[in-house]
Specification:
Elements (H helix, E strand, L loop, with lengths): L1 E7 L5 E2 L12 E2 L1 E3 L1 E3 L5 E3 L2 E8 L4 E6 L5 E7 L2 E6 L2 E7 L11 E5 L2 E6 L2 E9 L2 E6 L14 E2 L9 E5 L6 E6 L12 E4 L2 E8 L4 E5 L15 E3 L10 E5 L2 E5 L7 E4 L19 E4 L8 E6 L3 E5 L3 E4 L11 E5 L12 E3 L2 E5 L6 E6 L6 E5 L11 E7 L4 E6 L4 E7 L4 E7 L4 E8 L2 E8 L2 E8 L13 E4 L12 E14 L3 E2 L2 E2 L14 E14 L7 E4 L6 E12 L1
Parallel strand pairs: 2-3
Antiparallel strand pairs: 1-48, 4-42, 5-6, 6-48, 7-41, 8-9, 9-10, 10-11, 12-13, 13-14, 14-15, 16-22, 17-18, 18-21, 19-20, 19-22, 20-21, 23-24, 24-25, 25-26, 27-28, 28-29, 29-30, 31-32, 32-33, 33-34, 35-36, 36-37, 37-38, 39-40, 40-41, 42-47, 43-46, 43-48, 44-45, 44-47
Length: 570
């Protein structure tokens, strides 16, 4: 038998998958549940969850940070938005989105308003002013607000279809539009058309060949059949943009059902104006990704470049400034993003973190050292077993935690500190299922489902329980041991030494750690120092964790290092 001393002073890689247990230079664990990795590499019990409100049903949460003093949490449920200022409910408004549409909502905020997009619903704007919050449909107009500036397009199925214009039934500003073949559907209601230098909007569907339209001004009946005309880029027939961002003071929309690779950029400083005009530098821009395969734009991210994440790859527009005559679009990587539901990429310092199309990888999009090409490295290469069909994602820059909600109700949590070299995954569990997550004002808010009841809660350093009454288990376990590249047949433990900090309760290998009595007194921060536990003669299967530290009691526990003393035989 050979004596050994095995110390682990850092847990900077968090929980790792079994295939990496024998990898050198990885400070990993075989299990890390409901504990966080500290900046110095130690471990501490996660915060408890404080209830804020009971919700009507399944929900999705977003943050709307207007200023340092106004950090709003927006809770979307079935056709309703409930608004919280930090943890206090301040308003409720009716919304157009059903609970089944919540997973595909995206948003972009600026100033006192935020714009929401959905591929099947027109964009809506939530605005905050002195009278409170209001929600209204996004409209396209110029800076004077007098004339519609709708993005227009010529669809393939329009080719060969002509229109005859005749008097309409609703006065001098209405017209009857008769197509040369079946073309119109009931989904053309509110569609804009442009011909003869005039904009029209369809107001009533009559038949596959006939619709009624209105014009903002009186019109003169054209003396010829209309063969060259344009149609709205966004409507109920062809879909609405699914992606949105602001970039270089332009509002940017991306990807509809009919034009999945389309990109529409507003006029500079006029975010409702999508008129391309004569192509001046500040006028609107319309472009499309050119690729051999179908590219559904999933997300738009404004960074040093305009990043375009599609279902099959990652693109960027690098022009500074961006003008209609100078657009340099390049595909950099071919990972792809989830397109079935919205998992909004997160900005972490200079990196864009997104979930790959296979729902297994967490990728970081970052420029190479020359600042010319993006790479998409995998952030969860060592812990893919913790990623299980993600349904929501959010990053908290204050705690440096990336939260990924899984469809099984667990949450994979990455402590990511680039400067200190910490990239540690853990799993969070609670008494129910995590449903949604967002960060607002430095706090992390979640939606929890338990027995068909949904609650809004936030992680709080003032509680050791979940929802005030539920205890939760925190567990940390070492990796199976390997010495000098050998695989031992037998392991015997003699002693395990723990270095603890402000700890009040811990079990190691199912034995309670005996702490001084004074740590349990009122006002005590807990025990800080070294504690040794004797395990003379205890035999351990070399293929399982040699030590497991756990606690179910609502008391603080922080582990800085673990040292194992014993013998092994090859």
């Amino acid at each position: 038998m050979t004596e050994f001393i095995h110390s682990q002073n850092s847990f900077a890689n968090g929980e790792i998958a079994p295939e990496f247990y024998l990898t050198k230079n990885i400070s990993g664990l075989s299990r890390l549940e409901n504990m966080d990795v500290l900046s110095g590499g130690g471990l501490t019990r996660r915060f408890g969850l404080a209830d804020i409100a009971t919700l009507d049903g399944t929900a999705r949460v977003f943050s709307f940070d207007m200023s340092e003093q106004e950090n709003y949490v927006l809770v979307f449920t079935n056709r309703k938005i409930t608004i919280f200022l930090e943890s206090t409910q301040i308003d409720t408004i009716v919304s157009p989105w059903t609970d089944t549409e919540l997973p595909n909502i995206q948003f972009a905020g600026r100033g006192n308003s935020v714009i929401f997009t959905h591929p099947d619903v027109p964009p809506y704007v939530l605005t905050k002013d002195s009278s409170g919050f209001s929600l209204h449909k996004f409209s396209f107009y110029d800076s004077a607000g007098l004339y519609s500036k709708v993005p227009l397009i010529k669809y393939d199925d329009m080719r060969g279809v002509s229109i005859n214009v005749s008097a309409g039934p609703y006065g001098v500003k209405s017209a009857t539009l008769t197509a040369s073949e079946d073309y119109w559907t009931s989904t053309n209601i509110e569609t804009f058309l442009y011909f003869n230098n005039q904009l029209w909007q369809i107001i009533e569907y009559v038949s596959p060949t006939v619709v009624y339209a209105s014009s903002p001004v009186e019109y003169t009946l054209p003396v010829i059949t209309i063969t060259d005309w344009l149609e709205s880029a966004f409507d109920y027939r062809h879909g609405w943009p699914c992606a949105i961002t602001f970039h270089q003071d332009r509002l940017v929309f991306g990807g509809t059902h009919s034009v999945p690779g389309g990109i529409w950029m507003s006029r500079v400083g006029q975010h409702h104006n999508f008129d391309t005009g004569t192509g001046l530098d500040d006028e609107a821009i319309i472009t499309t990704l050119l690729s051999k395969e179908r590219q559904q734009i999933c997300y738009l991210i404004s960074s040093d470049k305009l990043q375009i994440l599609t279902s099959t790859g990652e693109w960027a527009i690098s022009n500074q400034p961006l003008t209609p005559s100078d657009i340099d679009i390049k595909q950099h990587t071919s990972v792809g993003s989830v397109s079935s539901h919205c998992l909004i990429p997160q900005k972490i310092e200079s990196e864009t973190v997104f979930i790959s199309g296979n729902s297994k990888d967490i990728r970081k999009l970052s420029l190479d050292t020359l600042g010319e090409k993006y790479n998409a490295d995998d952030l969860c290469a060592f812990a893919k077993h913790l990623i299980n069909n993600p349904i929501d994602i959010s990053y908290n820059p204050s705690s440096k935690h990336l939260f990924v909600v899984n469809s099984d109700g667990t949450m994979a949590v990455l402590t990511y500190d680039i400067g200190l070299g910490i990239s540690a995954w853990a799993r969070y569990t609670t008494y129910g299922n995590f449903v949604s997550v967002t960060e607002s004002g430095g706090d992390t808010f979640v939606v929890i489902e338990y027995m068909n009841t949904y609650k809004l809660a936030k992680f709080s350093d003032t509680t050791n329980y979940d929802s005030g009454i539920h205890e939760f288990q925190c567990v940390v376990a070492g990796v199976p041991m390997n010495f000098s590249g050998h695989r031992p047949n037998h392991l015997r433990l003699r002693k395990i030494n723990l270095r603890l900090w402000q700890t009040k309760c811990a079990y190691i290998n199912n034995m309670r750690v005996e702490l001084p009595n004074e740590v349990y007194s009122v006002g005590s921060l807990g025990f800080s120092g070294d504690i040794s536990m004797n395990f003379l003669g205890s035999q351990v299967d070399p293929s399982v964790a040699p030590w497991v530290i756990r606690s179910t009691q609502p008391m603080p526990i922080t582990v800085l290092s673990v040292t194992v003393y014993g013998q092994y035989e090859i």
